[in-house]
């Protein structure tokens, strides 16, 4: 009996591998999500729940490269999948932890990342961009800044500026998603994606983010291209540290897909 059980387990693992190969091949040939999902359903019939879950998780993860979790859920719910398969798929979709962009708040991890990248400087300075900067990247136009070059602030003031600036950046990102929804553009994101977007908005301005190529990719639900675009967003030889920062923000954005 043990021999038969081991053989069946091996046989099922082989079938799962073949189905995964099919998914990879199908996605390379076409991005017809509904067709790929329905064909996968036919192939997993008769498999154990554990094997089904492995295939479904791989399928959903692969399809997320080309579409949003919202559309994938709709396709799953409207398909001829049995109740067990739909239950597994629903659990996996929930595990991805996608929500509407305006439902997120900056996480502690996101806060720590920005704080680390900005590095606190208590003496105000300018770097030739028309701004006076102090604390954790708190910047104001020279003609509007109440703080003068060389002026020192306290650590408490620096922390307060950071709190205010991050609130403004996060609100700007949330507002962007709300504006999209008014035009029927709904793109769910994860916590790490939101954190990366707030970091970019804090560094380059909400307006700079909204008018960027990376946001054009995001509006289409193309998470992979969005993450790739972050690497090149407003980097320059004048500020070499931005290359490393964008790499980290790209990794942060892509870490949950």
Quick gist of this model?
This protein is mainly α. It contains twelve helices and three strands, in the order H-H-H-H-H-H-E-E-E-H-H-H-H-H-H. The chain has two domains: 2-95; 101-254, Lysozyme (Orthogonal Bundle), CATH 1.10.530.
User: What is the CATH class of the largest domain?
Assistant: Mainly Alpha
N-to-C CA distance: 40 Å
The CATH topology annotation of the largest domain reads as Lysozyme
Strand content: 5-15%
Helix-residue proportion? 55-70%
Helix/strand-derived category reads mainly alpha
Largest sheet: 3 strands, antiparallel
- The CATH architecture category of the largest domain equals Orthogonal Bundle
What's the total number of strands?
A: 3
Total of DSSP H or I helical runs spanning 4+ residues: 12
The total domain count is 2
Low-pLDDT windows of residues? 1-7
**Topology order in helix (H) and strand (E) letters:** HHHHHHEEEHHHHHH
Mean pLDDT: 88
As a whole number of angstroms, the C-alpha radius of gyration is 23 Å
Widest sheet: strand ordering = 1-2-3
What does this molecule look like?
This protein has two domains: 2-95; 101-254, Lysozyme (Orthogonal Bundle). β2 and β3 (138-141) form a beta hairpin. Strands 1-2-3 form a three-stranded antiparallel beta sheet. The protein has twelve helices and three strands; from the N terminus they run ααααααβββαααααα. Mean pLDDT is 88; it is low at 1-7. By secondary structure, it is mainly α.
């Amino acid at each position: 009996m043990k021999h038969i059980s081991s053989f069946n387990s091996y046989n099922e693992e082989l079938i799962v591998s073949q189905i995964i190969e099919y998914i990879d091949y199908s996605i390379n040939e076409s991005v017809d999500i509904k067709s790929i999902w329905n064909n996968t359903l036919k192939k997993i019939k008769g498999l154990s729940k554990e094997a089904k879950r492995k295939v479904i998780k791989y399928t959903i993860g692969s399809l997320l490269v080309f579409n949003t979790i919202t559309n994938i859920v709709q396709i799953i719910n409207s398909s001829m999948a049995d109740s067990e398969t739909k239950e597994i798929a629903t659990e996996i979709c929930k595990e991805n932890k996608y929500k509407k962009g305006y439902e997120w708040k900056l996480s502690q991890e996101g806060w720590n990342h920005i704080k680390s990248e900005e590095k606190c400087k208590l003496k105000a300075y300018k770097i030739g961009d028309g701004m006076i900067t102090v604390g954790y990247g708190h910047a104001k136009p020279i003609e509007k800044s109440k703080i003068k070059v060389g002026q020192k602030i306290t650590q408490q003031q620096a922390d307060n500026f950071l709190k205010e600036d991050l609130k403004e950046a996060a609100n700007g990102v949330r507002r962007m998603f709300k504006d999209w929804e008014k035009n029927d553009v709904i793109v769910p994101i994860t916590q790490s994606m939101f954190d990366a977007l707030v970091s970019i908005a804090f560094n380059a301005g909400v307006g700079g983010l909204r008018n960027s190529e990376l946001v054009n990719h995001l509006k289409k639900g193309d998470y992979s291209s969005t993450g790739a675009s972050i690497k090149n967003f407003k980097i320059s030889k004048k500020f070499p540290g931005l290359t490393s920062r964008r790499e980290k923000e790209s990794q942060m954005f892509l870490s949950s897909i």
